[in-house]
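User: Quick sanity check before I run a bigger batch. Here is a single chain. Can you write out its predicted 3D structure?
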Amino acid sequence: MTPNFEIRRAEKSDRLPLQNMLELYSHDLSEFWPMELDAHGLYGYALDKYWKHETCYPFVFLVDGKYAGFALVDDSVCLADNERWMSQFFVIRRYRRTGLASIAAKHIFDAVRGKWEVGQVPKNLGAQAFWRKLINDYTDGQFTDTNYDDERWHGPLQCFDNRR
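Assistant: Done. Predicted structure follows.
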């Protein structure tokens, strides 16, 4: 039986599940990025801006009605000409390699048009391969792929414009 994928803008009622999935995401990412738990045993992530600012977009992914991942999009870009930054993107392990990540990313790109930046942690080779292939397919090769290095970001950065 084929799973039923749903990708949608997160609502305020999705905040707690999203916060909890961010903990799983942070745990996965701690393999590549130095992060420490706080006094409560949490990584913590400030989500308020995703419901307060019109340039921030929280998304949740569901499979057969169950939470399966999320994405956070904002405007904290590296390059002044760009508008959209894929701040966080996560699919829980059970649903990796099911096509959900590709479907979700394309849905988000279609829903939030603009000049995009997508970056990956330098040591996360799997994420780099995923995003390069997906963005290449999504844009028919019309994107730039550089290693960006400044005080805000250090690592691979793909940029494309999907305003058309």
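The longest helix spans residues 15-29.

User: Great, the batch can go ahead then.
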